[in-house]
Design a protein that fits this description.
This is Cyclin-like domain-containing protein. The protein is mainly α and 270 residues long. 60% of the residues lie in helices and 1% in strands. The protein has 13 helices and two strands.
Length: 270
């Protein structure tokens, strides 16, 4: 009877036994034999003691004391800041912008009287308009002026212009009406040109002339507004920086330590 072989037995017989090869590799490291699972002696020192870090108590005490001193200094600075804020008179401009120059610097005791005398001199140099100028106007009345002032105030509020810009523009209009008779249809043009001029003097980013044409609902072109601006400067003889009510109110409120509410009421409800 002929013998037969199972195919699986034939295949497994051809596979070499690698267990001995693995054992020989594990036993030989760096040319030295060793028993299995023992540490390798590859140049690293055995039984090395762990390093101990000693803390200097004196230095730690100094660091703690310095940290306490720094914390105390920070607390003192915070308390001083709170006291200064409580004693300071905050105006509407300072409330909106923290980077604004403090009033204590603007109205220093050393220069306060000189500034006040200079403002009074400028007031004589730029006389306030006479209240009788409206009698010379044929088409205008005090109601017309109040409507124009309300419109300028709304523009100033919408574009967040300064109080000085608003009061300067009203001052320009009043001085212009002292010398020129204005038709009712051109009165808004005078107001737009006046605030355009005031914005160029007081504002960092004044309203553009095209924007002013839009604010008048395109009743006037940018070219007409610029021509009226030229006429205003000519009639006012380029005296464009008189002291306004806003300037005196700021000094008065700081001198008498009035709050921001009183300052706003004085600026807008006079």
């Amino acid at each position: 009877m002929s013998a037969f072989h199972i195919l699986e037995d034939v295949e497994t017989s051809c596979v070499p036994d690698i267990s001995k090869r693995k054992k020989s590799i594990l036993e030989k490291q760096n040319g030295k034999t060793r028993s299995v699972l023992q540490p390798l002696s590859n140049g690293v020192k055995q039984d090395v003691k762990r390093a101990k870090f000693t803390i200097n108590n004196q230095k730690t005490q100094e660091i703690k004391e310095k940290s306490k001193e720094n914390l105390e200094k920070i607390k003192v600075i915070d308390e001083i800041g709170k006291i200064e804020k409580s004693n300071a008179i905050i105006t509407s401009d300072e409330a909106e912008d923290d980077d604004h120059i403090p009033k204590s610097i603007l109205y220093s005791i050393e220069y306060k009287q000189d500034i006040w005398n200079h403002l009074k001199y400028l007031e004589k140099f730029h006389p306030f308009p006479n209240s009788k100028y409206m009698l010379r106007q044929n088409d205008l009345c005090w109601r017309s002026r109040s409507i124009l002032v309300d419109w300028l105030a709304s523009v100033s509020h919408e574009y967040k212009l300064s109080n000085e810009t608003f009061h300067l523009s009203v001052h320009y209009v009043d001085r212009f009406l002292m010398h020129m008779a204005v038709a009712k249809t051109k009165f808004q043009l005078v107001g737009a040109a006046a605030m355009l001029l005031a914005g160029k003097i007081e504002e960092v980013y004044p309203i553009d002339v095209k924007e002013w044409a839009y604010l008048t609902r395109d009743s006037f072109t940018p070219k007409q507004i610029l021509k009226m601006e030229q006429l205003l400067t000519k009639i006012l003889k380029f005296k464009m920086q008189p002291p306004t009510i806003s300037t005196f109110i700021d000094h008065f409120c700081y001198e008498h330590q009035l709050d921001a509410k009183t300052s706003i009421l004085a600026n807008w409800f006079y």
